[in-house]
């Protein structure tokens, strides 16, 4: 069982797709996707929660990981597994 993952994204974001592939490769079976292109009000929510305007913005449990580069850095440092384990 992995911690819940929520990702703010858009339909045509290559970094969102790469983040999803990395998470799935690490055993994540469900990602709650918040599509800010379909729900523009959720973009304001994302900016308020993260202070960032770009997608993806990834949360694992209650922890804001950041974008794809941040996620990949966590994985390289060997810290992603522990975060996903909760």
Task: Sum up the structure in keywords.
86 residues; alpha+beta; four-stranded mixed sheet; 4 helices; 44% helix; globular
Structural overview:
- It is built from four helices and four strands.
- It has helices at 14-25, 40-50, 68-76, 80-85; strands spanning 5-9, 31-35, 57-60, 63-66.
- Strands 2-1-3-4 form a four-stranded mixed sheet, sandwiched between helices.
- Helix 1 (14-25) links the parallel strand 1 (5-9) and strand 2 (31-35).
- The relative contact order is 0.24.
- The model has no long low-confidence stretch (mean pLDDT 96).
Count of helix runs: 4
Estimate what percentage of residues fall within beta strands. Answer: 15-25%
Order of strands across the widest beta sheet?
Answer: 2-1-3-4
Shape: globular
Low-confidence stretches: none
- Could you spell the SSE succession in H and E letters? EHEHEEHH
- Biggest sheet features: 4 strands, mixed
Taking the alpha carbons of the first and last residues, their distance comes to: 9 Å
Q: How many strands?
A: 4
Gyration radius (Cα, Å) is 12 Å
Helix percentage: 40-55%
Kindly name the structural category: alpha+beta
